[in-house]
Amino acid sequence: MNLRFILMMLCLVVTTFAKAEITLPKIFSNEMVLQRESDVLLYGWADPNEEFTIYTSWNDEAVAVKTGNDAKWEMNVKTPIAGGPFQLTFKGSKNEITLKNVLIGEVWLCSGQSNMEWSANSKIANRDFEVENANYPNIRLFTVAKRTADYPQEDTAGTWVACSPETMQDFSAVAYFFARKVQEELNIPVGLIDNAWGASSAEVWTPASVFKAYPGLVEAHKKVEPNKWVTVEKSTLYNGMIAPLTKFKIAGTLWCQGEANTVNAESYQKLFSEMITSWRTEWNNDFPFYYVQIAPFKYDQEFAGGMVRDQQRRTLALKNTGMAMTSDICTTENIHPLNKQDVGLRLANIALKNHYGLLADQEVYGPLYESFEVEGNQLKVKFTHADGLYNKGKKITLFEVSNAAGEWFSAKAKLKNNEVVVSSKEVKNPTGVRYAFNSTDIGTLFNKEGLPASTFISE
């Protein structure tokens, strides 16, 4: 018997014993947060047809589980109102796993590119103070390891940790500030899953089924050029980082991305809407999806940034979505605004009002374009979320009107009855209007809540 054969047999024996043990996905670990008052799916692997028990301490019950002949198992458990700490114990013939210090609360998936990935250690406003005071043991953090895959995966690397000055500083700052506000208002545990990768386009986060259904998105993706930070291959981050989590119950998703799609901005609404819909389909849950409108920045293409901002605005037509405007907390020379506090806060306020039913009297959106009416050579532009509409500065700028040929001209604008009246000497019969459409345009229109109006181009 040669040495090679012996080694092969040893590997087979080791593999067999490893498979025989109960194994959990990495998203299940000590310190984790499970979604409250839900049917939460527990799942994993064991020996084919193995019987074992799962014990949940919040109801002091043990349930029998049996794997199929594919060595996989699943079990739905009902979670109580928020609280903890609790324990889960998985007890089989080969091993026993106990997960400790488990909390029940609200779980949010946080994804996108660098402005979501951006941490305190990457530099944020008031960094030292924020880190020093980030002692929130009931906020739990899970960072998904950066992985690509050609096909959807079942597991990913990572582990849950309690939020502390040591752990917060390497975690998504936007997500942390979101959770801090939500926990302050709800007084319950919050779990955050940081699942972002800088410089990534939306295509890499979108499953292959979308591109199969919409070939036009494949053509649009060809404009996205390779970069040194992340792959641009379609679906690869979805397969490696999102697909492994689609069985894990979440409250909703936060998203901060769009800069990498300025090269194919005209198709972003379609791509983004289909990506959101596909995620909800995979989770079998129409969860809230709240996202950040990209900030003004000096892109190579003059109107690319404005186009993405408008496409993001239009994506609000998709049910159960919300958008935080950020044009007032940026500089056009820095694609990574340092004020992550207000970004997280604005997302949190949207969630608190729309998802949790709080902040009933508080406006959480900036003014959004609704429609226009033609009055001679003028257009009356109407907005929603525009109570107390006002302009910062002496003159209202950044409005343009178009003629029948589709040419755009700078327009004069004035406020009247919470509307904006625009006109241009060069256009006698205006047919359309747009606002803050240049990539670097920082708007000056705000509502009484101090939230900026969104870029738009009239439909």
> Strand-residue fraction?
25-35%
What shape does the CA trace take? elongated
The CATH topology of the largest domain: Rossmann fold
Instruction: List how many beta strands DSSP finds.
Output: 23
Domain Sialate O-acetylesterase: 106-349
Organism: Maribacter spongiicola
Protein name: Sialate O-acetylesterase
Keywords: Hydrolase, Signal
How does this model look, in words?
The protein has helices at residues 3-20, 114-117, 127-132, 165-168, 173-186, 208-213, 215-221, 236-242, 268-283, 304-314, 340-354; strands at 33-35, 39-45, 51-56, 61-66, 72-78, 83-91, 96-112, 136-143, 160-163, 190-196, 252-256, 289-292, 321-324, 368-375, 378-384, 390-391, 399-402, 408-410, 412-416, 419-423, 432-435, 445-446, 456-457. By secondary structure, the protein is of the alpha/beta class. It has three domains: 3-103, Immunoglobulin-like, CATH 2.60.40; 105-354, SGNH hydrolase (Rossmann fold), CATH 3.40.50.1110; 368-457, no CATH class. Helix 5 packs across helix 11 (340-354). The model is unreliable at 5-19 (pLDDT under 50).
Which helices and strands occur, and which strands form pairs?
Elements lengths: L2 H18 L12 E3 L3 E7 L5 E6 L4 E6 L5 E7 L4 E9 L4 E17 L1 H4 L9 H6 L3 E8 L16 E4 L1 H4 L4 H14 L3 E7 L11 H6 L1 H7 L14 H7 L9 E5 L11 H16 L5 E4 L11 H11 L6 E4 L15 H15 L13 E8 L2 E7 L5 E2 L7 E4 L5 E3 L1 E5 L2 E5 L8 E4 L9 E2 L9 E2 L2
Parallel strand pairs: 1-7, 7-10, 7-11, 8-10, 11-12, 12-13
Antiparallel strand pairs: 2-5, 3-4, 3-6, 6-7, 8-9, 14-15, 15-20, 16-22, 17-18, 17-21, 19-20, 21-23
Helix pairs in contact: 5-11
